[in-house]
Automatic annotation (TrEMBL):
Higher taxonomy: Bacteria, Bacillati, Actinomycetota, Actinomycetes, Mycobacteriales
Boundaries of every MoaB/Mog domain copy: 170-311
Pfam family, one: MoaC
Pathway the protein contributes to: Cofactor biosynthesis; molybdopterin biosynthesis
The protein, known as: Cyclic pyranopterin monophosphate synthase
EC number(s) per entry: 4.6.1.17
Organism, as annotated: Rhodococcus oxybenzonivorans
Amino acid sequence: MSDLTHLDGEGRARMVDVSAKADTTRTAVAEGRLVTTPEVIALVRADDLPKADVLATARIAGISGAKKTSELIPLCHQLALSSVKVEFGFADDAITIEATAKTKGPTGVEMEALTAVAVAGLTLHDMVKAVDPAATLDGVRLLTKDGGKRGHWTREPATDSASPRGRTAAVLVASTGGAAGTREDTTGPAITAWLDERGFRTRGPLVYADAEIAAGLADALSGNPALVITTGGTGVSPTDATPEATRAVLDRELPGIADAIRNRGTTVTPHASLSRGLAGVSNGTVIVNLPGSPGGVKDGLAVLDPIVDHLLAQIAGGGMHDE
């Protein structure tokens, strides 16, 4: 009568018999977002809400929710979960939630990952509702699943008429002198040339004063490129603000890349350790902060060179997983 496995031959709901299925390692990743105000996001980031530690509480709630999935969803099987991981990030208008559930058994853990996101999100709502009763839990969805007869599945990237994605990039220079025309920048053109050599369709260099770098980043992201590389504004002077502007738009950080860039730089000069540059993902776009010096840019591009293709493939939902 139907291809839906939770219906019997007469269309009645049933619990699927999985006893004949082989035990395999199964993993599922789901995500969601609590849309709220910038004020709430700032309070959560500063751990300054009147209730307890918001993120720690929501994380425990998400893990507990995953463990109780079979009690909440009538036809789900009881699974022996190997692990559940719940992580949070911040966007301008939302707290992002990502849950990874893992087991070894005859059926998948998609519902456990989705339940972890939903319960963590509802807990976030409960914790912030006194400040923002209009907060909305949105976009709860499965991203990937692995294991079983069907192997790997990943959600197709959303098609967006404003999004060329593909092999596109933008270069953003944070330079007050460059924006005023009193100083020649060489790092932006060097990055553009590096990208051109690797087949990217590149926009920029876009040059913004340090004080306007947040607007510059919004400009760079407006074309929805696959990759944004910034240069400058990563130091500790009072006007350096690139890391702060970047962190405000990231959904997930990639600290290993930023650390690798700093480590490579310190082999040349100890001043490289002063760089506060970040790397991460904002709505599917990879952002990498490089220092403002030509040597720092050279070191940063050397770090990116062997990983950029694999990185962009994984962000797009492809690429090999080494786990």
